[in-house]
Design brief:
206 residues, alpha/beta, Rossmann fold, 5-stranded parallel sheet, two-stranded antiparallel sheet, 7 helices, 7 strands, 45% helix, 17% strand
Length: 206
């Protein structure tokens, strides 16, 4: 399976690349990163991309419980099981040469870098490259907090006030880390943000 992006010379057509691409979508809770990631997945196509999101993972699934049992037998701390599960899905997507859309705040720079190093090393072991695009979703903190509260009132997920405060206190831009980075505003129309991301993806297809 090849990764794809729209071409300028052939509207509606997709050009291909012989390697996967990693897209890390980061931002505080309520910034709109999940909406952006899901819309981006729809734009690229579920046959060519995969969305990875800790908050949207079914931890009651047989696949997860089987892995969790295996990791427990190996002595791996339970708190690392969700990450290992998602990382396994990322490895599969790399093998399938898909675009990985990993949606997570990534407030910790060390964890951010370790994720990138692991996935790019896995790609290299499988004789392919894994270009990286970081998408940062900016948002007014007060508006993000209102969105989270509204989502929770409607039965959705969301962090506690304390956890939200920790996210907002710890979150900083990683645009100075040397990676190709697109910064979008969570208050903008999602179509405009997707267009900006898709344009950046085109530069990684070579």
């Amino acid at each position: 399976m090849n990764t794809t992006a729209t071409t300028d010379d052939e509207p509606g057509k997709m050009k291909t690349a012989g390697h996967p691409i990693l897209v890390l979508v980061r931002g505080i809770p309520g910034s709109g990163k999940s909406y952006l990631a899901n819309t981006l997945l729809e734009s690229i196509g579920a046959d060519r991309a995969v969305a990875l999101d800790p908050d949207a993972t079914d931890y009651t699934s047989k696949a997860y419980t089987d892995l969790s049992k295996s990791l427990t037998a190996e002595g791996v701390d339970e708190k690392f099981h969700p990450y290992r599960f998602i990382r396994g899905k990322a490895h599969k997507a790399i093998s399938d040469h898909k675009i990985l859309i990993w949606n997570q705040p990534f407030t910790n720079l060390d964890g951010f870098n370790k994720t990138i190093i692991n996935l790019q090393a896995y790609a290299a072991e499988h004789n392919t490259q894994l270009p990286l695009l970081v998408v940062e979703v900016e948002i007014d903190h007060a508006l993000a907090k209102e969105r989270v509260a509204k989502r929770k009132r409607e039965g959705g997920h969301g962090p506690s006030e304390g956890t939200f405060a920790r996210f907002t206190n710890d979150y900083v831009s990683f645009a100075d880390q040397g990676h190709t980075t697109v910064v979008v505003n969570g208050e903008d129309e999602v179509a405009a943000s997707v267009t900006a991301v898709m344009k950046a993806l085109e530069t990684l297809l070579a």
